Amino acid sequence: MKAIKEQVALVTGAGRNIGREIALGLAAAGFAVAVNVRASAAEGQSVVDEIIGRGGKALLCISDVTDRDSVAGMLVAIEEQWGRLDVLVNNAAIRKEAKIDDITAKDWHDTLAVVQDGAFFCTQAALPLLRKSPQAAVINIGGLTAHTGAADRVHVVTAKAGLVGMTRALAHDLACDGITVNCLSPGMIETARNTTSSPDTPKHHAKHGPLLGRRGTTQEVAASVVWLAGAGARFITGQVIHVNGGTYLGA
Fold first, then answer.
1. Could you tell me how far CA 162 lies from the centroid of its own chain?
2. Phi then psi dihedrals of residue 163, to 5 deg
3. Cβ–Cβ < 8 Å for 243, 219
């Protein structure tokens, strides 16, 4: 499914793993893509170069989504480059594990800031452009544990659960503008961080598994984002779409 000619998407936290694949997937569907990273400029540039190498259009946007002024500057750059924005994917997140006794105030606030403040600041700053689009969509990237809970992740689970509430509230607020707002909730996805041999694999992954008997791929998550961003999903808003191979059912 090809995007409307010259349609533009912004993907936050797009330097690696799921964010990277979402950016590549949207580019393959015909979107020009603004690739956001906070500090990993080399990773972001690698995504931009890959999109351009495949014949697409991309722009590197180095911006801290927890900083309102930084986000505003990013949206100005996108408008100057392409004059429009049609799809916003709020993917940036912090997912560190820690026991409740060890979580500092900084850990707590940093996690909520990236996930919740970031999604709010980016959505608010993007509204003037999104409202001009004939097919605008906001897609928040949630997580399985926001619905099941998990040990050693109270800050992450709280942040992602709040994103679900934000999605539903924004669906009400933006419906009059024709902007759809949905939350895509991946679970048990094979990434560089979540391989079975990685020391960073979340502990709850050892206790639960997909009904389909395998982990999902970042490409499968990206395909769901492309669908939510496209013409076929224009009557879907305020929803949580689970992409986890049935893990939620067995959690």
1. 14
2. -65, -30
3. no
Give me the tens of pLDDT residue by residue for the chain, a chain 251 residues long.
Answer: 555 568 999 999 999 999 999 999 999 999 999 999 999 999 999 999 999 999 999 999 999 999 999 999 999 999 999 999 999 999 999 989 999 999 999 999 999 999 999 999 999 999 999 999 999 999 999 999 999 999 999 999 999 999 999 999 999 999 999 999 999 999 999 987 554 544 455 555 556 689 888 999 999 999 999 999 999 999 999 999 999 998 878 75
**Domains annotated on the chain, with CATH:** 8-250 (3.40.50.720)
Nearest to 75 by CA among 34, 136, 115, 120: 34
Task: Give whole-number Cα distances, 46 to 4, 82, 93, in Å.
Answer: 25, 21, 20
Residues 119, 124, 125, 128, CA torsion sign: positive
pTM confidence score: 0.92
Distance, in Å, from the CA atom of 203 to the CA atom of 199, rounded to the nearest integer, reads 10
Parallel/antiparallel/unpaired status of strands 189-190 and 87-90 = unpaired
